[in-house]
Give the backbone structure.
Amino acid sequence: MNNFTDELRRHNLKATPQRLAISSALHNYGHINIDKLYEMMLSKFSSISLATIYKNINLMLENSYIQEVKIPQNKTVYELTKSSHSHLVCVDCKSVEDVSVDVDEIVNKLNLDDTFLISKADLVISGVCKNCN
Ligand SMILES: [Zn+2]
Ligand SMILES: [Zn+2]
């Protein structure tokens, strides 16, 4: 069992049972969208609402405890914050995989100087995964 209580506190978040459950769901399955997360949470907290989950997710995002991955033409997925990486997304089954490409390196190569002020860079590579190919 990971010590999510400490991790949450390190991000200035109180370790509520809901947040601990969200943490282990993201740790075990990674890259899950809000619907899937809601489904998983309902099996543990039968009266939890989608709004409560959104509230927790937004707070966890604000405190950088988790990060979101925007998937083209699909729902945003969430994962626990880890070192900089990019994503491979399968256009058939919508599975999301980590791939170790440091986007910061690519951004540095762009040499934009002051022509464009970058606030955030994400790289999502679409394709067909091994299972679907
Ligand atoms: Zn696939
Ligand atoms: Zn990831």
